[in-house]
Amino acid sequence: MRVRAVLVRAHIDSLLRRTPKAYLAILAGMFMVIFVPLSILFVPSFQFPKGALISIPANSTSEEIAELLEDQYVIRSAFQFRVYTRLTGEDRALQSGIYVFDQTLGLASIAHRIANGEHGIEETRVTLTEGMTNQDMARTLAATVPGFDTKEFLKHASTSQGYLFPDTYFILPGTTPEEMVMRLREHFDTKVSTIQTEIDDSGKSLDALVTLASILEREAQGIEDMRMVAGILYNRLRIDMPLQVDAVFGYIHGENGYTPTAADLASDSPYNTYRVKGLPPSPIANPGLDALRAAATPTKSTYLYYLTGKDGKMRYARTFEEHKRNRELYLD
């Protein structure tokens, strides 16, 4: 084998000595095969927009992203970007959002950044707490995220009360209200999937569980008390008794901690659970996972009444007379 290799090399050397043009052709071919692809992957665009905000809309396809990057001079060729990301498999991982490239980069580095969601920009940390209404969330986002449009957020969230999951989020500059609503909805779906077995076993619809959970967020603290209150509210529903929960009036008036008046108790609002039997027409807040789990797995008891005393502890009663005594002992 070694002798054969030596002979082959000698033959090639002989050809090159006799035909300089062939030698040049081989060099040119090597250059095309090695250096041109390298330049495509690693040489930046001549008009690279260093430091500019590059916005990739949500749900953009890899083809749309490639065209956008070429249009904004981030890359030299959308075609080359599509081919490269298809070969590497990164075309299926490209992420939307706002990107900033603080130094000039070649195609390979740009594809890697976008596929890994490396935005190169500082995010804003926002905490949305359990039991917030859509309006509460809008106010919190507006107070934290510069330029956040509350009206647009509420418009896109109008049919999602109860399904915007409360949690801590890191938000990129330029995130639109619509994108924020979508993110909150998607996070809700992800979280709910972790208790899907309990939901299925409850025999109740997700809408009913979310509505009850939204009440639990306002009526109880801690999952054990939430489970107990859930069981009591189910007992009331079972005997066709009005739910009689005060938390709905805060939702009606858009005021947290609202104390209902006699006029409220007599109002004809469909959310007035003193007059209208059954669950409210829709959730009154956005519940967290504990409240959702409590709604799906209530504590069974014979209690029909509950209250939170001045000491913050909950007391339960089987009869209205017992409930009145609890009021005298722990509230009055």
Task: Summarize the structure in words.
With 332 residues, this protein is mainly alpha-helical. The protein folds into four domains: 2-35; 53-115, Dna Ligase, domain 1; 124-193, no CATH class; 205-301, no CATH class. It contains 15 helices and six strands. The protein has helices spanning 2-18, 20-42, 62-71, 78-88, 107-115, 134-144, 150-156, 177-193, 196-202, 206-219, 223-238, 247-253, 262-266, 289-296, 320-330, and strands spanning 53-56, 97-100, 124-127, 168-171, 305-308, 314-317. A two-stranded antiparallel ribbon has the order 1-2. A two-stranded antiparallel ribbon has the order 3-4. A two-stranded antiparallel sheet has the order 5-6. Strand 5 and strand 6 form a beta hairpin. Helix 3 (62-71) packs antiparallel against helix 4, helix 6 (134-144) runs antiparallel to helix 7 and helix 11 packs across helix 14 (289-296). The protein is elongated.
Topology:
Blueprint: H1 2-18, H2 20-42, E1 53-56, H3 62-71, H4 78-88, E2 97-100, H5 107-115, E3 124-127, H6 134-144, H7 150-156, E4 168-171, H8 177-193, H9 196-202, H10 206-219, H11 223-238, H12 247-253, H13 262-266, H14 289-296, E5 305-308, E6 314-317, H15 320-330
Antiparallel strand pairs: 1-2, 3-4, 5-6
Helix pairs in contact: 1-2, 3-4, 6-7, 7-8, 10-14, 11-14
Tell me about the largest β-sheet.
Answer: 2 strands, antiparallel
Low-pLDDT stretches:
30-36
Q: Compute the separation of the termini in Å.
A: 102 Å
**Beta strand count:** 6
Strand content: 5-15%
Using only C-alpha atoms, the radius of gyration works out to 32 Å
Mean pLDDT: 87
Helix run count:
15
Describe the oligomeric state of these chains in a short phrase. single chain
- Provide the spatial order of strands within the biggest beta sheet: 1-2
